[in-house]
Amino acid sequence: MFQTLGRYLLLVRLSFRKPEKFSVYWAEVMREMVSIGVGSMGIISIISVFIGAVATIQVAFQLSSPLVPRSIAGSIARDSTILEFSPTISALVLAGRVGSSIASQIGTMRVTEQIDALEIMGVNAPGYLIAPKIIAGITMIPVLVIYSMVLGILGGYIACAVTGTIAPAEYLMGLRDGFNAVIIQVALTKAFVYGFIITSVCAYQGFYTSGGALEVGQSATTGVVYSCIFILFADLIISGAML
Amino acid sequence: MIQINDIYKTFGDNEVLRGITATFEAGKNNLIIGGSGSGKTTLLKCIVGLHEPTKGDVQFDGQQFTAMSFEERVPIRKEIGMLFQNSALFDSMTVEQNIMFPLNLFTNMSTSEKQDRANFCLERVNLKDKNKLFPAELSGGMKKRVGIARAIAMEPKYLFVDEPNSGLDPKTSIVIDELINELTQEYKITTVIVTHDMNSVMGIGDHIIFLHQGQKAWEGTNKEIAHTDNQDVNDFVFASKFTQAAREKL
User: Fold this and answer.
1) Is B130 helix (H, G, I), strand (E, B) or coil?
2) C-beta neighbour count of A9 within 10 angstroms
């Protein structure tokens, strides 16, 4: 385990060695940002709207006491969407979409000797292949999480309007009630850490793939599974430390 | 000139290379031949630095390559071109982008200069007007030729070729061999080729080393190999009845 951790840390350090040519690396960062950010907007939109709607309906269902104002459902749905559903559920979905793509892409390059070709040319392969993905992950996943928060809250509003469980006006009142900005900080910290975990863990799995197509598949699966576990650990640690 | 001195390479308990010493001269096709598992590709990877030798050293024109750090190796690596067994072209890039890749990273050429260089390299390997194709759209022989074009883009002093004929039909194999030979002669490149193709051995083998069980068992030229008394070489080179018959006519 310590050997794996050491190898992972060394790979991350190698990834951030001075680039051979900044402009080439910058172009890669932009390409990865489009791939991770724009490429994931569809799936994030769908899950965010549905999770926001379902969270609101379920909270409203549990608040059956006449002593509790119905608007409180808006506050609870807002906090749980911002603190947990948008960052963590999005990250788990992104681990599947982005992480498996990174691990299989780098793993395929390894088994088809494309990484050897880079090294022969004198290119720092971890720097060229992994650093742009990590930079894109830690910048675009927080952006996606903000986007997910907005859509999640919108999903809750749509659920109120369509089902009538709570009046939309009460939901909006609840959204504005007792808002504490620290939850945004917590959510964005989580998103930043998750972005690093997804990209670096899956890149590590891909980079040290050996064998053929079967092993590439195994690397992608292992990368996603480890990313999900580390995301849940990080969730616990960040929530415990910041709330 | 490349000199390798007393190269050993061990993977766990498995000693793959055992004390190989050889000199590869410029302007010659230096062939490393041997049966499967004899250590040919491992030796090639030790020479280019993809594997670190357990013992021994590699010198490129007198420069101690083995002892160098990653950064120190970069100037020598810029002078190395390599054609891989499966070509190792970057899937996400077009033919032209593959050839321009090292130029983008290591030169300050303008885009038009890089395109001119890519066109020149493609013309040199008889693949004019294939610039915009992706590797998936190319045949095996075309991929090899693009691999050669990429390898010569930086005008290398050293060219390494791993199994250039694997997966190719005999006619295309000869085309690839002739191309490598022409480039070696024309640019006075130190070319090291790992192969077990007998047409290549007899056709372009200016200098041949034969590996057997991780050791250098024989060294000579393509003219000498037909008349050697070394039993291991004879068993390898003249394994089929066809080559035995051909030998008798020599």
Assistant:
1) coil
2) 12
Nearest C-alpha in B relative to A27: B104
Residue A4 lies in a domain: no
Domains delineated in chain B: 2-79+156-249 (3.40.50.300), 88-154 (no CATH)
Q: Which residue range is the domain that position A37 belongs to?
A: 22-242
Is A30 a member of any domain? Answer: yes
Contacts of A113 in chain B (CB under 8 A): 84-86, 88
Those residues whose C-beta lies under 8 Å from the C-beta of residue A161, and which sit 6 or more positions away, are: A168
The larger pLDDT score, comparing residue B170 to residue A236, is at: A236
Mean pLDDT score of chain B: 90
CA distance readout (Å), B175 to B83, B141, B156: 15, 9, 21
* Cβ <8 Å between A114 and B88: yes
- Summarised one tens digit per residue, pLDDT across range B40-77 is 999 999 999 999 999 999 999 999 999 998 889 999 99
User: For residue B136, what is the DSSP state?
Assistant: G
- Number of folded domains that form chain A: 1
Tokens found for residue A162: 């369509």
What's the complex ipTM?
0.88
Buried b (16+ CB within 10 A) or exposed e, A77-111: bbebbbbbbbbbbbbbbbbebbbbbbbbbbbbbbb
Nearest to A24 among B86, B104, B160 (CB): B104
